[in-house]
Design brief:
CATH topology: Aminopeptidase
Number of domains: 1
Oligomer: single chain
Largest sheet: 8 strands, mixed
Shape: globular
Number of strands: 8
Structural class: alpha+beta
Strand order of the largest sheet: 1-2-3-4-5-6-8-7
Bound molecules: coenzyme A
Length: about 180
């Protein structure tokens, strides 16, 4: 039985398990999944990312959670919230993010998980304001932001994208606790 921190109708969100490593490495190597990032991740980069997410979870009680499809109990990617400290006019902040494997796209899973994470941010973790960032090329991700009711507040140059001519800037969305 997995210990879900957030459950939706079709998804379970939890801390990361050793069994997530293999499928997450595959996902982060997929060109399609990583098309709006500077490059796909190496095995070591993905393992380091999982460790960073686990450490953040232990420190704050939340992170970009591992997501299971409840019907199959299969790991399909991540969705969640993280503290962001890179330097910009919008940070430090808590942001919401998502990354799913390709076979899980187009089923409304990102929207379902993101909506639940936003609610948990405000009601479970007492966060007052959540931002979301994505490159201006990532229409699917921006659509998720719009569909969960976030509001466009501007653009920013993310340090990860500096010098990459494909990505001029990131759009920034915001949602506040009521
Ligand atoms: C972003 C991502 C999580 C969206 O997942 P998803 O499960 O397809 O999202 P949903 O089905 O919940 O909804 C996405 C919306 O965008 C639309 N959409 C999906 N792919 C699209 C595309 N390539 N172009 C435009 N719109 C797209 C969907 O139709 C849906 O809108 P609709 O319900 O109004 O039709 C997924 O594409 C992904 O993992 N991408 C790679 C990682 C990534 O870029 N993460 C975000 C980084 S900021």
């Amino acid at each position: 039985m997995k210990n879900y921190i957030i459950e939706t109708e079709r998804l379970g969100l939890r801390n990361w398990l050793p069994s997530d490593e293999k499928p997450f490495i595959e996902m982060c190597k997929d060109q399609a999944v990583m098309q709006h990032f500077p490059k796909p991740l190496s095995n070591v980069e993905t393992i380091t990312l999982i460790q960073r997410l686990q450490n953040h979870f232990h420190e704050h009680g939340y992170c970009y959670f591992a997501v299971d499809e409840l019907e199959t109990a299969e790991f399909i990617g991540f969705a969640g919230i993280m503290n962001q400290t890179w330097e910009s006019e919008f940070t430090p902040c808590v942001d919401i993010g998502w990354r799913l494997k390709k076979t899980a796209w187009g089923k409304g899973y990102a929207t379902e998980a993101a909506k639940a994470c936003l609610e948990a941010a405000f009601n479970q973790f007492q966060i007052k304001e959540v931002l979301a960032f994505t490159t201006d090329t990532n229409t699917a991700s921006e659509n998720v932001m719009k569909k969960i009711g976030m509001e466009y507040i501007g653009t920013v140059q993310h340090p990860m994208m500096v010098g990459d001519p494909r990505f001029k800037h990131c759009v920034v969305y915001k949602s506040e606790a009521t």
